[in-house]
Design a protein that fits this description.
This protein is an alpha/beta fold. The chain is 43% helix and 17% strand. The chain has ten helices and seven strands. Helix 9 links the parallel strand 5 and strand 6. The longest helix has 14 residues. The chain is globular.
Length: 184
């Protein structure tokens, strides 16, 4: 894989779903739908939405998990769900959390209302230093960052600007293609 560069597999920023940090969750979901319809049919559909500041720079991401969690504000009362998931809670304990915090007690009745008023900036994820990769880095380097950080994607940089996304799904497809072409 030494010959492949990150830029060879990245999805260009122009092909990705983006919204302003001031957008509503509804606007973000609509933008995702439009981007998926226009995207290359040979690749996996987008699973995230990039959030742009007033100058058009990427400042965050909205994952599928962020969107769903953003519709239920009581998840925040529990604390860091990412940390709690590592403890392997029993189904009974999880049910007690759901009941005690009133999680999704009115899930669908207010879904549209919640999506229209919830701002993307309230629920977006701000990428950390380890979630950026240079466009001219080898694909090997990108793979190492995806694996070590347990990331689904990395933001691809060129001269201090984000130019695309390197997605785990695209890397996986490329690796499978390479394996299939092996003559054993």
């Amino acid at each position: 894989m030494e010959q492949l560069k990150v830029k060879d597999l990245m999805v260009p920023l122009a092909d990705y779903a983006t919204v302003s940090e001031d957008a509503s969750l509804y606007d973000a979901v609509v933008a995702l739908g439009k981007a998926q319809k226009a995207f290359n049919k040979d690749r996996d559909k987008h699973r995230a939405i990039l959030v742009l500041d007033k100058n058009g720079y990427v400042i965050g991401k909205l994952s599928q998990m962020d969107v769903i969690k953003g519709l239920e504000p009581n998840y925040e009362k529990i604390g860091s769900l990412r940390d709690t998931s590592r403890f392997g809670f029993s189904p009974d304990f999880m049910r007690s959390l759901i009941k005690n915090y009133g999680l999704w007690d009115r899930p669908l009745r207010e879904l549209c209302k919640k999506a229209a008023v919830k701002k993307v900036s309230e629920i977006m994820y701000r990428p950390t230093e380890g979630e950026y990769v240079n466009a001219d880095d080898t694909l090997d380097q990108g793979i190492h960052q995806l694996i070590f950080g347990h990331h689904q994607s990395l933001l691809v940089m060129r001269r201090k600007q984000i130019v695309g996304i390197l997605r785990l799904s695209d890397v996986f497809r490329e690796i499978c293609s390479m394996i299939e072409s092996c003559s054993i």
